[in-house]
Amino acid sequence: MRAFDSFLDRFCTPPVLVQAIIIFIAFIVYFLPMQKTSTEQYSEHAGSIGLSFFPEPDTVYEWAEAYGPEGRRAFIRSWLTYDFFWPLAFTTLYLVVIGITMRYAHGPKAARLCGLALVTLAMDYLENILAIIIMVRFPARMETTAWGLAWVNALKWTSMCVVSALFVYGLAAALICFVYRK
């Protein structure tokens, strides 16, 4: 555990923060609109697995059918390319901001909370793996996998809410400490 804490301390630095901000902005400005265009036509009349909190199996299979073969292939490509790098981009930003701000406001022990961002990353990747399995095996129904996908999505979004709250709290706490330490 100490090695992991040491890694987080070395990783959560201003130079890494600047790089994370640049990469995050590049994704928002360039890659996200491009990705939306490539999959929007398939999900226009169906939902999106990654944006659902708890997609029940029947819903997932309705969407898979609505996507059609070409749409399922497009989503699989997306999950293996874009959605591999996007979670890394936002996780890095969250991890570094939380690490720096919590260390500044509350010390090194509080900075360890930044590691919670890795839970969101793990859940996002697991969601992608389960969704790919379902799309590849469609029309065969894999109930256990589909229910696993629903629970993983719920855990992903719950952890994202927790990490987002830490992000906002860290920024506010660091600002307050900065103002009152002067």
Calculate the terminal CA-CA distance, rounded to whole Å.
35 Å
Strand percentage, roughly?
A: under 5%
Structure annotation, total helices = 7
Q: How many strand units?
A: 0
Stretches where pLDDT is under 50 for at least 5 consecutive residues are none
Shape: elongated
Query: Roughly what is the average pLDDT, rounded to an integer?
Result: 94
Q: For this entry, what is the oligomeric state of its chains?
A: single chain
Helix content: over 70%
Largest sheet: number of strands, sense, barrel closure:
none
User: Radius of gyration over alpha carbons?
Assistant: 19 Å
Write the H/E string, N to C: HHHHHHH
In terms of structural class, how would the helical and strand content be classed?
mainly alpha
Describe this structure in words.
The chain is mainly alpha-helical and 182 residues long. Helices cover 84% and strands 0% of the residues. It contains seven helices and no strands. The protein is elongated, with a radius of gyration of 19 Å. The chain starts with a helix and ends with a helix. The relative contact order is 0.14. The model has no long low-confidence stretch (mean pLDDT 94).
